Amino acid sequence: xxxxxxxSIFGTKYNDEFFKNGSRHKELLDKNGILIFNSFxxxxxxxxxKKEAGELKKDSYKSSSEYNVYISEFDDNFPKNSSRxxxxxxxxxxxxxxxxxxxSILQKIYDSPIIRSFFLDLLNKEELxxxxxxxxxxxxxxxxxxxxxxxxxxxxxxxxxxxxxxCSKGGVYEFFxxxxxxDNKENYxxxxxxxxxxxxxxKVNSLEGDLMIFKGNTSIHQVTAVExxxxxxxxxxxNETKGVSLSEQSRKTFFGRIK
Length: 259
Hints:
Layout: H1 4-7, H2 16-19, H3 26-32, E1 34-37, H4 43-56, E2 61-67, E3 88-95, H5 105-111, H6 113-123, E4 138-143, E5 149-152, E6 159-165, E7 169-170, E8 173-176, E9 181-182, E10 185-186, H7 188-195, E11 202-204, E12 211-214, E13 220-223, E14 226-228, E15 231-236, H8 248-255
Antiparallel strand pairs: 1-12, 2-3, 3-4, 4-15, 5-13, 6-12, 6-15, 7-14, 8-11, 8-13, 9-10
């Protein structure tokens, strides 16, 4: 049963009955690689979250990171500008979990047993656990003018995000579903076409309050640069194994500290 503190912040259709059977959405997620639950957060909830995110932004850490689309080490067996090694970049500001108030509705959503059960059913997972470190389970990400998320595959096979505030121009989510492998091998040729802008992916115009679940391990994706306004996105991050921490290098990159 949804805790009474949360009922007013969810959209009207997201009630106890809705959360009882997440598996009914699994087929659509597997087919499309993405699910968007529109107006997951109500206007009341959005007002609270925007205020909270706005107040926390002054304490955010500005990061800039470079990587290849596979988030892996440089491979000397491929040319520097190949799809395997070509450098992408991301710039943003981030609030780590330990700066988010314990009574935040973000923390309550993350800790809610019925929401966790819903995600377990939907993702067909046996367990979902928070990160062991205090920084990585919930993050608030801020994208200002010029900030963008470069093309990449995620390390995790699923990503859960909540759009709190949308920019007025730019900041478009674009992806290619389930294209990573061909004949059980990395599909470098098609990825090269993507990076060379010879093909266009599916663009997602998500709205404030939308919850998105995405299979990012096999589907390459990016967010184009913000051109006007500010984009605020929350990530809910889980592990299938208990006691896992985000790597020290990643924590240093995204949060400016490891604890």
